[in-house]
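Annotated sample (chain length 126).
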Amino acid sequence: QVQLIESGGGLVQAGGSLRLSCTASGRTFISYAMGWFRQAPGKEREFVSAINRFGTSRNYIDSVKGRFTISRDNAKNTVYLQMSSLKPEDTAVYYCAGKRTGYSATYSRMDEYDYWGQGTQVTVSS
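Output written by the structure step:
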């Protein structure tokens, strides 16, 4: 069973930056596409970004394009989400997710992912 552990959340002022990390257990991380989702209070969980297994393809929801950057270090079994120019509407619990045999970065539905982390809270104050 693969475990995903997120870290890096916290409280930041609008306009600030945070970097989220998600580290996976096991030896097959390189075969996974990885995604980030978020869930704000009272809202459904939504897709934020995804990256393919080799880090050569990325995908973002429109509202974070130009502000967020997803990356991965397969040697460290870790995927990152660098968040800049944060806005209060970015406040949410952020979850990382892994999809087995992830050749592309087009996976944006929750049911496409096989593994989930426990989430990390990001709060952006105005």
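Annotation: The mean pLDDT is 96.
Annotation: Residues 29 and 119 are 19 Å apart (CA to CA).
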